[in-house]
Amino acid sequence: MMREVSPQKPSLKAQFAATGAGLRLRAIYDRLLSTYGPQQWWPAKTPLEVVVGAYLTQNTAWTSVERSLGNLETHGLLTVDGLRNVSEKELRDHIRPSGYMIRKAAAIKAFVAFLDRFYEGSLGKLSEESPAIARERLLALPAVGPETADAILLYALGQPAMVVDEYLRRVTTRHGLLPASSKYAEIQVLAESAFEHDPPGIRAQHYNEFHAVVVQVGKRHCRRVPKCEECPLAFDLPKPLAPAPIIAKSRRIESA
Ligand code: SF4
Questions:
Q1: What is the pLDDT of residues 217-232, one digit of tens each?
Q2: How far apart are CA 173 and CA 16, in angstroms?
Q3: Cβ neighbour number for residue 176 with a 10 Å cutoff
Q4: Residue 241's pLDDT is what?
Q5: pTM for the whole structure
Q6: Whose CA is nearest to atom 6 of ligand 1?
Q7: pLDDT confidence of 43, banded at 50, 70, 90?
Q8: Phi and psi of 198, rounded to 5°?
Q9: Beta-carbon neighbour count of residue 206 at 10 Å?
Q10: How far from chain centre, in Å, is Cα 140?
Q11: Which residues line ligand 1 (CB under 6 A)?
Q12: Domains and CATH numbers, the chain
């Protein structure tokens, strides 16, 4: 007797291709890039500063992060040696402006210990690691969720890692590209599908600008209460203009 074969569920990537969601998101990116121009992120002078900033910015406004980074720079601590040798207590005092200093100081120290253990204290050596292994190891560190891991991979190490944040979740779900309950990995697959036809060599550059311009539209328009009327992405909303849902409370997407 022949066994009945159940139809295979299409992969998420195939679903996005079939529905045209990836192409729509690419049009959204193109509009944002032409509106805001290249952002040339991350706002940091060195890869290590990117890493430290990625920890400090968790649940904190960037202006507070800048004060902490300024303290660290003034005291010569924005180097691997500096962070290795400073006591955790002193580190906490310097990063106090960005909040959660006990947890963040411990996490930064853990990152330096990780760098020493696997990569001889060298971010350059970490950047030569396979991105999949580097991501897995970063995710095993304290206070590193997917958003922080991908931000480090992309902005400090130059790897093509798509960063998903609360702003991207708002844009993709409010525009009906994904259900509101979508998880980090699902949003990431959708965002990657917007760039799948680009040569691999320029993906990291597009991912870099994509995250940066999504942050711009999020800060300016796609807030908890969205301002769709003045937004450059209103062209992609259903007509007549449907009010985008209000998000109850801001949350860090990497915990989803
Ligand atoms: S503010 Fe409105 S138009 Fe702009 S991205 Fe958000 S939902 Fe879309």
A1: 999 999 999 999 999 9
A2: 14
A3: 15
A4: 54
A5: 0.89
A6: 222
A7: confident
A8: -80, 150
A9: 17
A10: 17
A11: 171, 174-175, 217, 221-222, 226-228, 231, 233-234, 237, 244
A12: 12-40+164-255 (1.10.1670), 47-156 (1.10.340.30)
